Amino acid sequence: MPAHYHRIAITLHWLIAVLLLGQYLFGWYLGDVPRNTPERGFFINLHKSTGLLIGLLILLRIVWRLTHTPPPLPAATPHWQRRAANLSHGMLYACMLLMPLSGYLASNFSKHGVKLFNMVRLAPWGSDDKVIYAFFNQTHKLTALVLVAFVLLHILAVLKHQLIDRDNLISRMWPRATRPPF
Q1: φ, ψ for residue 29 (rounded to 5)?
Q2: Among the residues of 109-159, which ranges form H helices?
Q3: Global pTM?
């Protein structure tokens, strides 16, 4: 049986996974909300506010990860798989950090800024600059797509380990009170 991650790491992993999925779907939905309508502003500010909170959770997760050594992979794990796991985890963390950061920066180079949960306006600290806004907004969107690609790769790796290798590696990140679903 592989060693487990700490319950704080497990909680942060699954909480952020669920929140990112919801935020991604919410961001997708925003494309259907008509521009220049009050409801768009309302939903955009919810997306921004939720993104800021998720960003803080991601920072907490990164600090936790940097200060707590993860359990070792099974000794039989090939070197190339260890390298691939390290690279893909690094890309996941980079995307999780860059996505909310670029969204926040984009917001600060528009006249709208952020209205935290549609109650408290955080005035933008940057100028209303369409070029800088477009750069950070495109970075935000591109990073979301790259993150989805690495999440899918991550899920495929989990499935490979569980269904083909049958090494029960998922148990490392699964809450201990329950068994993995497959």
Answers
A1: -60, -35
A2: 130-159
A3: 0.89
